[in-house]
Amino acid sequence: QVQLVESGGGLVEAGDSLRLSCAVSGRTFSSYDMGWFRQAPGNEREFVGTITWRGRTNYTDSVKGRFTISRDNAKNTAYLQMNYLKPEDTAVYYCAARRIGAPSFDFWGQGTQVTVSS
Predict the structure, then answer these.
(1) Which residues pair with 99 in a beta bridge?
(2) Mean pLDDT of 45-59
(3) Most exposed residue of 1, 7, 19, 67, measured as fewest CB within 10 angstroms of its CB?
(4) Phi and psi of 65, rounded to 5°?
(5) Three state DSSP letters for 33-70
């Protein structure tokens, strides 16, 4: 069983930066694609971005140029660097893991709250 634990959330002001971490248990982290999602109150969970097992990244338009996803396979950890945060980025952020070739993300973390004040 793969377990994901997010950390790094908090309360910041608009324009600030935060880095979220997603620690993944198990010995096969390097064979998973990793994704970041978020859910604001009253909204559906939305896609933020992904990093494939090869290191290729993809982002939703609203965060392009501000957010960066990376991974450290030696530490079994994925990261979401968030710069120039806006109040509309306020949400619970979730990381997820997807086995290579799987159609969807199989494993999810518990989420970490990010609140951006104006």
Answers:
(1) 32
(2) 97
(3) 1
(4) 85, -10
(5) EEEEEEECCCCCCEEEEEECCCCCEEECHHHCCCEEEE
Long-range contacts of 59-68 (CB under 8 A, 24+ apart): 62/88, 63/89
Distance, in Å, from the CA atom of 62 to the CA atom of 85, rounded to the nearest integer, reads: 11
Residues near 114 by beta carbon (within 8 Å), at least 6 away in sequence:
9, 10, 12, 18, 20, 38, 82, 85, 89, 90, 91, 92, 93
Give the per-residue pLDDT at 78: 98
* Per-residue tokens: 32: 């998973």
Give the model confidence (pLDDT) of 60-103 as tens digits.
999 999 999 999 999 999 999 999 999 999 999 999 999 988 99
Q: How many CB atoms lie within 10 A of CB 20?
A: 24
**The one-letter amino acid at 15:** G
- Using CA of residue 94, residue 23, residue 21, residue 102, what is the dihedral sign? negative
On the CB side of 28, how many CA atoms lie within 13 Å of its CA? Answer: 10
